[in-house]
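INSTRUCTION: Work out how this chain folds

Token vocabulary: learned, describes local backbone geometry

RECORD BEGINS BELOW THIS LINE
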Amino acid sequence: MRQVRQGTEMFRDLQQALNAGYAQFLGCVSGPQEGAMGVHYVNGALVDGEVDASRPEALIYEFKNGVARLVGVEFVVPAAAWDATHDGPPVLEGQTFQFNGAPNRYRLPAFYELHVWAWRDNPSGTFVDWNTRVSCDGM
């Protein structure tokens, strides 16, 4: 978690994330019971089949009163690139990434992902996709 926070500290300012190549991917993602995932900003240049705790492929923001707050990150690894050189799914900080096959609701090729709520506590767990303390109401 320390590496994730150190690597993303500067992106608490959304403008810094935009300057670094992150761009909004879809709107705010929420569920009726689960809470929300927030708004994801993805840096396509980092979606390369590698896992680096200090360089997440996606930053997750929650908007309240027009202000973006960094609440977490998501690591995204294309399955084809990873599977070509590894026997199992990626693992970060002892957490195994989840597999999302294709087709999926994001219209992406199959990928592995891991959410890390590095900047907002998640009562369900640090690595759980949905966070009941995140809301899309401020969008």
